[in-house]
Task: inverse folding
């Protein structure tokens, strides 16, 4: 395949930036609890991350570096998913920088602009998967599950990055809300989606080439990365850690308030200056898993031409 590491990094950064914006958006709307300190950091980093990833994509096109005027053709081919991406990424980067600057300067932002940024962030996360799903010559990619998987992974990695950087965005202390519960839901959803995707491929629904791609991950040359980095470090260990942390936080809050709390009402009220080592390692593992996912999907994809695998 002609898609290699620059594309992998772009797919990762595109989802990461989109997920970061949506994390702060959710925190701002109170969906992560009233005590969440993630209301700003995602807005600061979303647009720069996506812009850097987009620059890598332009470099990977080759002509984008030496003959950038040829990229103008992408603006008019509305039958191309890449054309959709040009407009989505451009609009999101622009609104993302505006939102991030306004939050930094404590300038009131129209609610419509914030919502527009959230819609574009969701579109950006979806586009990174839709770009692959549109390639019918690669059975492993050509499924409607791929955009869904990329969106969920984007939300998960964005949430972890924002959690890691939250202490830097707050002047003195930061607090957490329902981030652990959100992590559990997202990782659980990702496990289900990956299971369904691999089941479709192994069953032969997408043909022998789809089976071959899945076998590369399950028992082939990429099995160590799949089971070790993606499943183990990226999903299982973080899932167990977030479940433990959620229960631990519930005990802390119950003890502080001396009243029983429903699981959905649990929010850590203890102020912190720094993350625990467990939190840092867990969030880093989620990021490693998110990157490994993109690498595996790109590197294990086998193309088809007239039923013949292209070496």
Result:
């Amino acid at each position: 395949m002609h898609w290699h590491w620059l594309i992998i990094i772009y797919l990762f950064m595109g989802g990461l930036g989109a997920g970061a914006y949506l994390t702060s958006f959710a925190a701002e709307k109170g969906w992560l609890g009233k005590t969440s300190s993630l209301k700003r950091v995602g807005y600061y980093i979303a647009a720069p991350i996506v812009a850097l990833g987009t620059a890598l994509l332009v470099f990977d096109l080759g002509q984008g570096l030496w003959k950038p005027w040829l990229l103008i053709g992408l603006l008019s081919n509305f039958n191309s998913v890449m054309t959709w991406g040009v407009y989505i990424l451009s609009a999101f980067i622009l609104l993302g920088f505006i939102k991030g600057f306004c939050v930094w300067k404590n300038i009131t932002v129209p609610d419509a602009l914030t919502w527009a940024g959230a819609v574009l962030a969701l579109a950006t996360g979806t586009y990174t998967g839709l770009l692959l799903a549109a390639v019918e010559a690669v059975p492993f990619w050509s499924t409607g599950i791929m955009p869904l998987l990329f969106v969920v992974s984007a939300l998960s990695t964005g949430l972890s990055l924002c959690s890691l950087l939250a202490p830097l965005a707050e002047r003195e202390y930061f607090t957490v809300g329902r981030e652990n519960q959100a992590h559990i839901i997202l990782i659980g959803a990702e496990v289900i989606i990956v299971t369904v995707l691999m089941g479709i491929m192994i069953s032969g629904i997408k043909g022998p080439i789809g089976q071959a791609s899945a076998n590369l991950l399950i028992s082939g040359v990429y099995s160590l990365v799949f089971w070790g980095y993606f499943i183990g470090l990226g999903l299982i260990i973080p899932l167990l850690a977030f479940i433990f942390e959620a229960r631990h936080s519930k005990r802390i809050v119950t003890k502080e308030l001396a009243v029983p709390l429903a699981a959905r009402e649990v929010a850590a009220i203890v102020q912190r200056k720094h993350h625990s080592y467990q939190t840092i390692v867990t969030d880093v593992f989620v990021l490693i898993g998110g990157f490994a996912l993109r690498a595996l999907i790109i590197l294990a994809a086998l193309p088809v031409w007239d039923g013949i695998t292209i070496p």
DSSP finds ten helices and two strands in the chain. The chain has one domain: 5-309.
